[in-house]
Amino acid sequence: MNVLITGASGFIGSALIRHLLDTDRTVIGLSRKPEPLARRFGNRIKTVDDLAKIDADTSIDAIVNLAGEPILDRRWSEKRKQVLYNSRLDTTAAVIKLIQRLNTKPTVLVSGSAIGYYGSQPDDRMLDENSEGRNGFTHKLCADWESRALEVQRLGVRVCLLRTGVVLGHGGALKRMLPPFKMALGGPIGSGRQWFSWIQLDDMVSLIDFLLQHQVLSGAFNATAPEPVTNAEFSKQLGRVLGRPAILPMPAFVMRLALGEGAELLCEGQRVVPVRLQQAGFEFRYPKLDKALAASL
Ligand code: NDP
């Protein structure tokens, strides 16, 4: 199987490349700066800096579309929100153009989305894939990103959408959270009652592979572990795994000053459960947070 990955240099993309190479698949990685990617994986992968440069005769069996500007790197101004939106929608449009050009179409597109699809949900309701999204920027971003990816269905391509929770692994969001916790300055954000839906990186990679291989599966999948926790519980368990107290609350207004509207991702939350993956028989290696955190530090 030859798999094209957009966002190949990223946190999830790199882990996926390692897994696919280890299991005898071949990879084409898209990166705007492909040299570091090529250095990292050597001649075991092909790299490309523009999908338009891929020849129409290239054999691509599957595409995993993960590219997008980092969500929490900067404060969300109106301009930044447009950059977050365009980077995802434009790359997906380029994927569609590529599929239209390819002489042999891939059989499947696994495309990114996020639990932000559901928007901020102030109550304790469990959200499955049929739950309605609430209005707001993250809902619009994810809903439009999903709709665009679904356009390739009319070309006969199966589409699976990844409504991804916070991915825990070496790097990613956890890397940013760790410094205060390591100095015993960590703690719950705001009230701590908001839900935190997470997934360990190994499970994220395995479920992408599961969706690539299970030809009967399509549509949206919550890519989250079966047991989301409150933010207070997450802080407590992270402190415990690190052997540090985690009791200093981070006031919500400080997060809002730092991140603007983006603070809603941390100060508010959603209790998301992976109903469709579990119905399809996917087994999580890390269903519980304590073991997931231990494997991620
Ligand atoms: P990273 O930020 O680690 O990687 C994103 C990739 O997107 C990079 O490899 C980068 O490639 C590419 N990229 C960045 N900006 C642009 C741009 N303007 N145009 C085209 N490509 C761009 O993300 P993750 O691997 O963590 O996540 C992958 C996807 O999953 C993202 O879209 C993210 O929003 C989503 N997601 C991730 C979660 C997480 O916790 N990690 C949670 C929920 C959703 P290069 O610079 O090499 O071109």
Automatic annotation (TrEMBL):
InterPro entries named among the record's database cross-references: DUF1731, Epimerase_deHydtase, NAD(P)-bd_dom_sf, SDR39U1
Domain (NAD-dependent epimerase/dehydratase) spans 3-215
Q: Which SUPFAM superfamilies match?
A: NAD(P)-binding Rossmann-fold domains
Q: What Pfam families does its record include?
A: DUF1731 (PF08338), Epimerase (PF01370)
Q: Boundaries of each DUF1731 domain copy?
A: 250-295
Q: Give the family per the record.
A: Belongs to the NAD(P)-dependent epimerase/dehydratase family. SDR39U1 subfamily.
What's the name of the protein?
TIGR01777 family protein
What organism is recorded for this protein?
A: Motiliproteus coralliicola
Question: Could you read off the lineage of the organism from its UniProt record?
Answer: Bacteria, Pseudomonadati, Pseudomonadota, Gammaproteobacteria, Oceanospirillales
